[in-house]
Amino acid sequence: MSLKPGLPHFFSQAVIDFLEKNESDFITLWQEQIILDQADVHKEKVKENGYLMYALIKNTLLDTVTEDDVQQLAYKVAKERVEANINIGDFVYNVNLGRSLLIKFVLQSDVSRTQLAAIIDQINTQFDQFCYHAVTKYTEIKNTELEEKKLFINQTHKDKLAILGQMSSSFVHEFRNPLTSIIGFNKLLRTEYPNIKYLDIIELELDQLKFRITQFLHTSKLDFIENPKEIVILNDLLDEILNFLYPSIVDSDVQISTDIDPTIKIEAHKDEIKQVFLNVLFNSIDAVIQREKPRIIHLTCYLDAKRVVIEVSNNGPMIPLEVQETIFEPFYTTKELGTGIGLFVCRKIIEKHLGELTCFSDEHKTTFCIHLPI
Predict the structure, then answer these.
(1) Chain centroid offset of residue 297 CA
(2) Is 224 buried (19+), middle (13-18) or exposed (0-12) by CB count in 10 A?
(3) What is the pLDDT of residue 7?
(4) Is 284 in contact with 276 (CB distance < 8 Å)?
(5) What was the pLDDT predicted at 5?
(6) pLDDT of residue 238
(7) DSSP string of 163-203?
(8) Which residues are CB-neighbours of 5 under 8 A, at least 6 positions away?
(9) Handedness of CA 206, 211, 212, 217 (dihedral sign)
């Protein structure tokens, strides 16, 4: 079935005869003006497809073209444009250039303007149909490619996490038992010989090492230990964490201020939430030591509607906008010796608690914001 009823044959034939008489000039002019990227693997086919479109228009004027004919050519061109990986805008420009030149040539024929108006309308309709099918197919193919890439990336992340989970299990067996023994004997020494220097520092360092090992374990979903939730008073928990971090705070000459509502409580897995606060504060300390004094970290905790909001702000370097979401991806790190799993684990824990962890950064401060249900 044709796209639209044809014109009287002798008018259409007169235009076709005129086009064929001037075909060489028309094709040459179009090829001289088109955009053709030298990196285009199908650059020769661009010219070939232009001629095919020209032939399709001639057959349209004879009313011998179906929509399937237009669609097939459009799909062929769309596939080649995707393979060439060239800006689709170049393709649209070249098509419309061909349309404009073709209409200019048609207007020079001996056919009356009244009859030419209908012929030009037919030409425009065909070009519109062709562009629609080509761009639609191009977008469809591109979207499919993007989905396949996303699936590949997600699967790669899962594979990495699975491998890391296996590594973590081995890591635990190799290090947790001797570490537990050392922590235990250190406590005995503090009990039996309370005057020995540095035992408290050793205990703090061992606790930090234990924390790092636990952090590694949390990269595997299977390693979240489902202990019962408990009621946690955030003020008490954050005081405990700041006491634990005291040596790092003093050593880095960081000023920490707090504004915490002492009445706020949450129901949570305490060890997991503690790990989140520790990691965010560790990152904040690492950030502020990159700048001159004063090095400032501010910790705020308040209620907002039916949520608890905890904000950890620091005056370290700005995190670029394009990185502010990427930092939560597994294995992404800006630290020379970083693993890229800390913030990924933190977000995973907060989401497990039906909360949200976000980051905002500008030239004045960087804020990590945690939302949790009351």
Answers:
(1) 29
(2) middle
(3) 46
(4) no
(5) 46
(6) 92
(7) HHHHHHHHHHHHHHHHHHHHHHHHHHHHHH-TT-TTHHHHH
(8) 63
(9) positive
pTM exceeds 0.85 for this model: no
Per-residue DSSP letters for 87-106? -HHHHHHHHHHHHHHHHHHH
Task: Residue 181: count other Cβ atoms within 10 Å of its Cβ.
Answer: 10
* Below-70 pLDDT ranges, the chain: 1-10, 157-174, 176, 212, 214-227, 330-340
C-beta contacts of 46-55 below 8 A and 24+ residues apart:
46/94, 49/73, 49/76, 49/77, 49/80, 50/94, 50/98, 51/27, 53/95, 53/98, 53/130, 54/23, 54/26, 54/27, 54/98, 54/102
Sign of CA dihedral 99, 101, 103, 105: negative
| Residue 66 one-letter amino acid | T
CB contact set of 145 (below 8 Å; sequence gap of 6+): 82
Q: Are 343 and 283 in contact (CB under 8 A)?
A: yes
3-state secondary structure of 251: helix
- Asked whether 234 and 310 are in contact (CB, 8 A), the reply is yes
Burial of 70 (0-12, 13-18, 19+ CB in 10 A): buried
For residue 182, what pLDDT is reported? 87
- Please state the separation of Cα 8 from the chain's center in Å: 56
Structure tokens at 54: 């020209």
Helix H or strand E segment including 206: helix 199-217
Q: Is residue 165 exposed (0-12), middle (13-18) or buried (19+ Cβ within 10 Å)?
A: middle
The answer to whether 351 and 309 are in contact (CB under 8 A) is no
DSSP H or E stretch at residue 245 = helix 234-251
3-state class (DSSP) for residue 60? helix
| pLDDT at residue number 9 | 61
Q: 344 and 333 in contact (C-beta within 8 Å)?
A: no
